[in-house]
Amino acid sequence: MMRKKWGFVLSSLMSVSLLLTACGGGGGQQAAQPAGQAPAESAAPSGDGQSFVFKAGHSLTEDHPYHVSLKDMAKRVEEKSQGKVKIEVYPLSQLGAERELTEGLTLGTVDMVITSTAPVTNFYPKLGVLDLPFLFESRDHAYKVLDGKVGQDILKDIESANIIGLAWAENGFRHVTNGSKVVKTPADLQGMKLRTQENQIHLAAFEALGAKPTPMAWTEALTALQQGVVDGQENPAIVANTYKLYDSKQTQMSLTGHVYSAAMILFSKPVWDKLPADVQTLLAEEAKVAGKEERELMIKMEEESLQVLKDNGMTITEDVDKQAFRDAMKPVYEKFAGQIDQDLLNEILNTK
Ligand code: PAF
């Protein structure tokens, strides 16, 4: 039975050999590239025509749920395929930062990625609706939307950007950190130099708040914080913890929760299209399990992360004037009204 299931038929063998020819042949065991650089050679599946090795990249550390869930997925996939499908997981932007990773998916130079959605919007603009500040009331609201019709339609439709949407995962609610002052209202952010993600809506949001946002890849953010190029940044508590932002001059975290940063497990369509159906099914099923596991780990780690930040001298400010932040975001909704699918936006806002 297993032999039949994994005994690849002639068409599979042909597609793999075509792929290997197109990619210059079996690069599956190449060393990871230095941080911030896209791999020079294709990371397309490789092997002897019966087995596959995929490279999966992300920007976070090995103790972050992005990594843990992908490693667990790799283990299950290897076991279930009896060693014929392997996934190598590269943390710390070794295969590139999130924008580069996403581009790599569209080109077929990166196989698989877990990433926050903000940089993906640059390749699939419909996703921009998720970048709107204060869109989701709660984690449950986000889950209902992403696990419901809206989220599932997006996972299918992102194929139009040459990317296969496998599953939703989570980066978390984003909070502002800085090294100089307690932030409770937008007025406290006036003139503050903040690193933001490379995303037009995030940029406009922080401009509307009176800050001086500087979009850059996460690979550049730590140096920018350490060298004082920026005073602060915004990310979930788990990122602040796993990257020890208290060692990068960050003494304050304000629980602004201004954006729910969803994450996605994505696959390269150019690579996917050459895979046998049973490999696609296995990857699709196990990515869903990984997305679920990742979210569960995120929930578990959140409180723990806030405690670690406190233990390392950071002040966590909870009494943020969220209404003032929401009010300041109205011009952002107006500015992007023409670019955001309003039906989609209403569907999200009306999901209870
Ligand atoms: O700020 C970012 O770029 C993202 O939140 C990060 C840290 C890479 C995680 O997805």
UniProtKB/TrEMBL annotation:
<dbReference type="InterPro" id="IPR004682">
    <property type="entry name" value="TRAP_DctP"/>
</dbReference>
<keyword id="KW-0732">Signal</keyword>
<dbReference type="Pfam" id="PF03480">
    <property type="entry name" value="DctP"/>
</dbReference>
<dbReference type="GO" id="GO:0055085">
    <property type="term" value="P:transmembrane transport"/>
</dbReference>
<dbReference type="GO" id="GO:0030288">
    <property type="term" value="C:outer membrane-bounded periplasmic space"/>
</dbReference>
<dbReference type="GO" id="GO:0030246">
    <property type="term" value="F:carbohydrate binding"/>
</dbReference>
<protein>
    <submittedName>
        <fullName>DctP family TRAP transporter solute-binding subunit</fullName>
    </submittedName>
</protein>
<dbReference type="InterPro" id="IPR038404">
    <property type="entry name" value="TRAP_DctP_sf"/>
</dbReference>
<feature type="signal peptide">
    <location>
        <begin position="1"/>
        <end position="22"/>
    </location>
</feature>
<dbReference type="InterPro" id="IPR018389">
    <property type="entry name" value="DctP_fam"/>
</dbReference>
